[in-house]
Amino acid sequence: MDTKFDFEKFGTDVVYVKPILASDLPADVQEQVGDLEELFAVHNASGEQLALVADRKLAFHLARENNMQPVTVH
Question: What are the beta bridge partners of residue 52?
């Protein structure tokens, strides 16, 4: 199911966390992630990537530390 969802209706403090395969990243970023096969991206409601971190728990912690409400996107 690839239905678009309007996250902006939740407000500006909602961010979404989604898994990213390291192999899908640009080559220069792949060089920086070492042996990690999967990372987690934190995006705002407009789709702008705010952060790229090593694991899901860290992504949620980062969002909460910045007074944002994280949600998971599959």
Answer: 41
C-beta of residue 56 within 8 angstroms of C-beta of residue 74: no
Cross-strand bridge partners of residue 15? 44, 70
Query: For residue 57, what are the contacts with CB-CB under 8 A and spacing of at least 6?
Result: none
Q: Are strands 14-21 and 38-44 parallel, antiparallel or unpaired?
A: antiparallel
Q: How far apart are the first and last CA of the chain?
A: 10
User: What are the domain boundaries of the chain?
Assistant: 15-72
In tens, the pLDDT along 45-70 reads 888 999 999 999 999 999 999 999 99
Q: In the structure encoding, which two tokens stand for residue 10, read together?
A: 């939740």
What CA–CA distance (Å, rounded) separates 63 from 42? Answer: 8
